[in-house]
Permease (Streptomyces olindensis), 341 residues
Amino acid sequence: MAITKTAPRESGERAETGPDRDREEGRHFNSPLLLTLLLLTAVMFQGPIRGALSAPVMQSWMTVFVAVMVQALPFLVLGVLLSAAIAVFVPPSFFARALPGRPALAVPVAGAAGAVLPGCECASVPVAGALVRRGVTPAAALAFLLSAPAINPIVLTATAVAFPGDPEMVLARFVASLLVACAMGWLWHRLGRTDWLRLPAGTSHEGQGKGAAFWDSVRHDVTHAGGFLVVGAMAAATLKAVVPAEWLRLAADHPVLSVLALAVLAVLLSLCSEADAFVAASLTQFSLTARLTFLVVGPMIDLKLFAMQAGTFGRAFALRFAPATFALAVVVSALTGTVLL
């Protein structure tokens, strides 16, 4: 009797665990299977693919794409390594001790600190969250959040390399980005409300060893930033090779339209700040002022940053902070470009 009662249970357990195991194995093998199918498809249709790639428009596309990737990758990797080291090995309490007690003074100090602390925007959001969690005034933490990805040494060096004939672009990017970061910090200190800002939760690296946390951060940032770089390089190559020159000239010839077009493009592309200068440099149809706007807006507000800010500080914060940052970045970069470029 015991056997007849237990046998259906065992059979039922096998019936329940079997499909679960199949689904779990399916999840594990989906990605390799997809890659294998793509490779087989490429081999089967290599003739047509080779013919398409040999077309003049594709040759131009590949030239721009490869040029942007080759120039940007070293800066991307270096920036990810340095930002991971700072996020993992430099305790957040260090920043709290280094900043002045008065928020009005802490904002420009925190903004200027971005000039000596390399890090991409993917790293600046969790670092800013850690600062708020350790008691740093939110206005100063937000100024650091905006300035660090835009004016750190890696980004400014990459900008100088991307614009060898226009060294003033480095100064213009530094000035405009720092002004926006400080202005947003002061604006939040003046008008921000406590209930708009959710206290960030602990970082995902807590409880891990330093080495494991460092390499987890590197793998995460390389994967995400590298993917956005590829998308940005593809978009830049497409603009150069596919979009009719008349369309680009129509937008580029209008001073206001060109600035707004590249500002929106920066938000949509969501590039890593270590690589965006090379994409901007390839948009030669547009003025230096419009490309400066692209470089100022991108590291401060784009699609991935909005999602990260909402996840870290809350949706009420992101819905107010992001549009204000975008508008101020466009205005300040346009004015800075008019004066310095």
Summary: The CA atoms of residues 289 and 338 lie 7 Å apart. The radius of gyration is 24 Å. The chain has one domain: 59-340. Residues 1-17, 19-29 have pLDDT under 50 and may be disordered.
